[in-house]
Amino acid sequence: MVRVLTVALLVGTAGLTANAAEIVPGHAASVGVDVGYVDVSAYSSWTEGSAGKLRYGDSGFTLNRAFIDYRGRWTDTLHANIVLEAYDDDIGNAIDFTQAYLEWRPVPGTATRYRAKLGAFYPPISLENVDAAWSSPYTASSSAINSWIAEEIRTLGAELAVTRRPASLGGAHAFSIEVAAFQGNDPAGSLLAWKGWSVHDRQSRFNDELPLPPLPQIQPGMMFEKQDPWVAPFREVDGRTGYYTNVEWRYAEKLLLRTGCYDNRADPTAIEDGQYAWYTEFTHAGLQTTFPGAIGLVAQWMTGATVMGPRMYSNGAHAVDAEYESYFALLSKAYGRHRWSFRYDNFAVSQSDQTPQDNNAESGHASTLAYQVGLAEKLSLVAEWISIKTHRPAWSYFALAPGEVETQFQLTLRLRL
Fold first, then answer.
1. What is the tens place of the pLDDT at every residue in 62-116?
2. Partners of 75 in beta bridges
3. For residue 126, what are the contacts with CB-CB under 8 A and spacing of at least 6?
4. Where are the strands (E) in 87-209, listed by range?
5. Does position 2 have pLDDT exceeding 80, yes or no?
6. Rounded to whole angstroms, how far apart are CA atoms 302 and 125?
7. Contact residues for 118 (Cβ-Cβ < 8 A; gap 6+)
8. pTM
9. Is the pLDDT of residue 18 over 80?
10. Is the terminal CB of the chain with fewer CB neighbours within 10 Å at N or C?
11. 29 with 68: CB under 8 angstroms?
12. What is the DSSP secondary-structure string of 188-200?
């Protein structure tokens, strides 16, 4: 009840903020509330400290999220963005922030534009979550790739971006490069190895403690007994600085190509206050375009590795040594007040280590079908069906079948102010 009242307070405050933003030049607040009903047939959810892939383990009415996305121009060149998210679950505080940063945009004097960020923010990876507060305009849930980004990947640091529209190409082409250095994010990779991929709509806030399944190796007397039964993915453990880079090409409104790499440079032998550092790196690529008939396509691919603990095996593998890969393709068609979207995800984790009772391999795929209809100017209804089929041998540790198909139907009212 306390959490529900706290979330209601956020929503009420958000309404006041949105009204005030209308009369304060240079400042705006996007406000969102998602509520609905979910019917699920799945294992108990990872959000409840179990092993299921979906966000919910039980059917019923839900408060999916409430958010405020504040964007303000403090000077002619200095901007700010702060995003607060509220959830009615038992992970972290009822209200906390997902992003908070300053952005400097100097007045361009040439065809080259510069931009710098400082603070806490998402790396520019997702082509799917492009609306306010990192929402998706296509579906209620995110792909497996972007569900994991929402769970474990955030940067506390600085980013520099350079964009140029060459006049020699007619101004329709824009080329960008982004580089960043960051601290924190050392435990990232914990969930991907020990829980695996998921498909859901929850974003981790900066003080969230994300539950782990009751894994044998994190129990007292076992190899990883120093690990808390939860993960704080944005914590700094070893003092090292990570980095990421991105390259992007846009052609008018017709095509977007993006690729990049991420490396947290963590020391896999470090541990502090119940959190191990995981050396995690990945490469990603994606495209967005429109087919004839105004059918949109968004597709992304990611591959990488995450390791933790000392090297223990003759093949050079660490105590936990996993490689991972995922890709998805999303088709979307909007007409009038309606939008249909379909997404297919494929995902896998393989491992090089032989640590007993710590099998982190998995393979699977998911299909998502979503329909949206605008009921009023600021109110829409989203119906979404997800089917996710997974083979994960580690489920046998919890007396669960290692292969399962989990399904979820979700009906959500979306209010956007």
1. 999 999 999 999 999 999 999 999 998 989 889 999 999 999 999 887 889 999 9
2. none
3. 134, 142, 145, 146, 149, 300
4. 95-104, 112-121, 155-164, 173-183
5. no
6. 10
7. 101, 102, 103, 104, 157, 158
8. 0.94
9. no
10. N
11. yes
12. TTHHHHHT-----
